[in-house]
Amino acid sequence: MMSENEEHGSILEKINEKIHEYKHSSSSSSSDSDDDKKPKKSKKKKLFGRKHPLHRVLGGGKAADLVLWRNKQTSGSILAGVTVIWLLFEGIGYHLLTFLCHALIVFLTVCFVWSNAASFINRSPPKFPELILSEVHCLKFAHIMRKEINEAFFTLRNIASGKDLKTYLTSIAVLWFISILGGCFSFLTLSYTIFLMAYTLPMLYEKYEDQVDVVGEKALVEIKKQYAVLDAKLLSKIPMLSEKKQH
Length: 247
Known about the structure:
Blueprint: H1 2-37, H2 54-57, H3 62-67, H4 72-90, H5 96-117, H6 135-160, H7 165-184, H8 187-207, H9 209-233, H10 239-246
Helix pairs in contact: 4-8
InterPro entries: Reticulon, Reticulon-like
Transmembrane segments: 103-121, 173-199
Protein name: Reticulon-like protein
């Protein structure tokens, strides 16, 4: 009897182990199937193939913080100051030389009066920082400017020598567009508009990044299609461009 009971108990244990193994395998397979059913998140394409955050693309320093309006009070104050200056020149008809002289007169007068009156009102006189341009910074700036100017001269020489028809046509189109804008707006208004766009568009793009990326991707695809049509109908028939493509 004892042997039969032991045998019966071992059989029940084996059955329980099999049931446990079956439940474990079924639960794992179901979880795997659920994972397979879950839609995989596709990596969204950034505008112009950007791989880094916008703050890092803009340099990641204080300038990027200002353009992206990390401190709204500081960025708003700069925008308000530039707008006031633009209104003084464009609306009231203030001249640049007059504005600079008046600003210096006010600044020097306030500082002179404050420095002399500080001892009478028991206040410390203003401390002015010692501004000195270091030779290293001047040489670095000159090196950067020299490089940019040389690249501009090299591009102009290539365009004028007739070696690159595509760059020539692009330059003519850009210059023609700028000349049209120059006829519609004054140089000061055009400069203020460019500043306003450069100062606000990055912040708006960061805020609506996903929507802009989708629209921008569609626009780039459409531009490539139109360029392909233009290339097939016109540019490929120009001898200079067709010879370059063959090479």
